[in-house]
Amino acid sequence: MEPFLLGAVIVAAGGFAFLNGFHDVSNSVATAVRTRALTPTIAVLLASAFSLVGVLLSTSLALFLTDLGVGLPSGTTGLGILLAALGAAGLWGVLTWYHGKPSSSTHALLGGVIGAGGASQLTHGPVTEGVTQALLLQIALPLLISPVIAFVLAYLAVFPATWLLRHRSPASVNRRNRMGQSVLAGAFALGHGLQDGQRTMAVVLLALVGSGYATGSSMPLWVQLFAAVLLAAGSLFGGWRITHTLGNRLVSIDPLRGMAAQGVSSVMLFLGAISLHLPLSSSHTMTSAIVGAGANQRFASVERPRVAAILAVWLGTAPVTALLGAVFLLAVSPLL
Length: 336
What we know:
The protein is mostly helical and about 325 residues long.
């Protein structure tokens, strides 16, 4: 039964990576498409290519996340927890995409792991020692703080950008900012690969470690390629429902503010993945940066009801996926 569950976890992790790319490519392309810096086709191709490169560049964050998860039970119980968590995160991703709401796949996966782990203990399974505390303190906390930081930095970034371009004509300003957006769309997609692609690698490596097929000290090359290809493939199909939400429904945004939002988000993803080894949500950072940059205008442009609805989705992600993870774990418990 254990080899079957291991295979099921790997397949589910591949589906999670594909859905992640499909769901989150909007973060890379929304502002560039909205301001006509890039055509939709070019934007998606660019995002897909740079997401693939981002996953292949580094495995440090994935190994860090794997270290946090070593308290998961070994054998079939640990595999069942991962499978239930992936199912919960995948279902939540489909629901939020259908309703055009950007959401964090990392928060969804985190909630699924916590819920499935709790349900495992209810069925008298092995205890997931220290995992919940580590996930909450070292993953959930950065994910909750990052939207506030992104909003503030993007709001403040508009001031120096406006001052530096104050003597140029509007046509020249828009042209230069669109060029900057084209570059930053690729940079953000690279950061997305560095961040979100490593979630899939961490899950697969955890499954391999729990089954005795890996040590957890290094990342197998096939796991890295597996995550990279599926994340890029998902990005190619692009979830345009969320792109429309980010580009048109939250704020009135111009090329200058779009570039500010993309620049802040890209820097945060790079620093989080490479320097600080902190998991950050590309959806949280980009959405908050767009709202922050758009709010820095003389006229009120923020669609507060829609922003409030997205915040409600963010706050509900972990609790809902925890409940789903618990239900899925109980459903597969006869196999464990």
